[in-house]
Amino acid sequence: MNFPFAALVALLPALEQEASENDGAAAFPREGMAHLRHLGAFSAPLPRAWGGRGYGTEPAGALGLLRLLRLVGQGSLAVGRLLEGHVNAIRLVARYGTDAQMRRVAADVRDGALLGIWVTEGVEPVRFHDDGAAIVLHGEKLFASGALQVTRPLITARAANGDTRLILVPRDDAGSASLSVGDVSGMRGAGTGRCDFTGVVLTPDALVGQPGDYLRQPEFSAGAWRGIAVALGGIDRLVDLLRLQLADRARDGDPHQRVRVGLALIARETAALWARKAALVAEGRGFDPGDVAATVNLARIATERAGLDVIELVQRGLGLSAFVTSNVVERILRDLATYLRQPAPDETLVEAAGWFTRRDLPQPEGPA
């Protein structure tokens, strides 16, 4: 049975409405997340052997996941961020963990668990002490999406010898978490906050993989393609709203506005082509690891550029109405601008361009 994409498309207006209603109070999108869980979006990333569809964990699931994340991004970038983090965590456990760990994750997901990947350090970076019988954590994570709702965060932590490890932390309650990371203007519905892990005691099987796995290439860079897919959904929605609102105001016949619509469509399709290429290269087999990392990094920059271009075109095309809070465009502009702020864009572009100066980009083959 295929994923119920038609039902997801029908859900998008409700996701968008909830995102707008929750924006002022930075409320978590509980209803939207529940609907997605009912559709099977949170179990789809599980490998097929564990009851999922392999979206993000098997090569055959690449384009299915691209479509899923893009559609969710059209409805709500905040929900898309939470789903993307959930996929990321499952992917890392599937890639680096043991069968026993994957079995436990699959059971937790079927029971409604929400996973996430939290890596940004607070004032006290997360460290752990392993005495062979127990693991004791100390420190906090910042900018943790779903800080109060993620029940199985996969975090990075440093051992006494300096090794960085991945640790899967079961959380029965969110008492150690808060939303006190500052009042960000966009992506407010993602529930971003901080979490203090000081004093948390775990069994040794909470350690996932080997030292350094989180930063291992090409996986470390390649995973960015999933964020690209969500951002593409936000770009989709802004382009559609630009067209619809210009038509509603009978301004779609103005040649200058038509130029803006044309440029916005070009930007969107450029981002879509790069997103598809990144998905096929990142999830495919037989590609050089350097080619994978550099291709996804170029796709990341191309999508950022497309998103920024569309933001400007929408603001100029709709004028002051794009800044009126009752217009859904105003929130989506903030959400997309925030979502596009990924770290080190200049370094990312320079490294990717340097890699391909003397090499051709890989040309993946995949179903249309």
UniProtKB/TrEMBL annotation:
UniProt cross-references to Pfam families, sorted A to Z: Acyl-CoA_dh_N
Gene3D superfamilies for the chain: Acyl-CoA dehydrogenase/oxidase, N-terminal domain, Butyryl-CoA Dehydrogenase, subunit A, domain 2, Butyryl-CoA Dehydrogenase, subunit A, domain 3
One of the record's GO cellular component terms: cytoplasm
InterPro entries: Acyl-CoA_dehydrogenase (IPR050741), Acyl-CoA_Oxase/DH_mid-dom_sf (IPR046373), AcylCo_DH-like_C (IPR036250), AcylCoA_DH/ox_N (IPR013786), AcylCoA_DH/ox_N_sf (IPR037069), AcylCoA_DH/oxidase_NM_dom_sf (IPR009100)
Domain Acyl-CoA dehydrogenase/oxidase N-terminal: 16-109
Any GO BP: fatty acid beta-oxidation using acyl-CoA dehydrogenase
SUPFAM superfamilies: Acyl-CoA dehydrogenase C-terminal domain-like, Acyl-CoA dehydrogenase NM domain-like
Keywords from the UniProt entry: Oxidoreductase
Keyword Ribonucleoprotein on entry: no
Domain of life: Bacteria
Sample GO molecular function, one term: flavin adenine dinucleotide binding
Listed name of the protein: Acyl-CoA dehydrogenase
Organism of this sequence: Gluconacetobacter johannae
